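ingest -> validate -> predict -> emit
validate: passed (alphabet ok, no gaps, 192 aa)
predict: started
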Amino acid sequence: MNILYPVILGVPDGIQTLSPRERVKFLSGHARAALAMSANFSRASLDELKKDPDGVPLPSNGYFWSLTHKPLFVGAVVSARPVGLDIEQIKPFHPGMYKKVAVETEWTLSTGNRFFLFYRFWTSKEAVIKTHGTGLRDLLKCRVVEILDEKRLIIEYDGKPHYIEHRYFSGHIASIVETDSQVCWHLDRPPM
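emit:
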């Protein structure tokens, strides 16, 4: 069985005061530090990290990788197979977003709180399209077909099932495609 080591790092205080360009540069570098940690846990040796013309990460030394960054947390993972990881802060949003993330048959899979379900669906679908190297245009091509429990669900995309695992922390959710893999999360919050 393949083991995935997604690493989530908290963003130190004060970064929000940087200019937008400097903040993005810092977050990108911080996400790459998380990637280096994931590679270390995985015993993977990465070379130069490159992307194709569409911004899709290219394998490095035979390993696939995925990065995500938000204002308060960044995340990364290395894998022997295509992989996708996404983080979102759980916060209020415009109700019109429900239709942009899932169709009614998906919403009927659960009687639970739609607000939290929205974030499970959103991050899961983002992780799947990252795995395939497609963009948000394919978000609604991903279909939630089964909710296994509070931390796992199955999405069908391109005729294939994708098993997703969630991690909840500090008002955020992270989702990773874990098909045929064990997930060992590493979460590191910065000192306050």
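The two ends are 37 Å apart (CA to CA).
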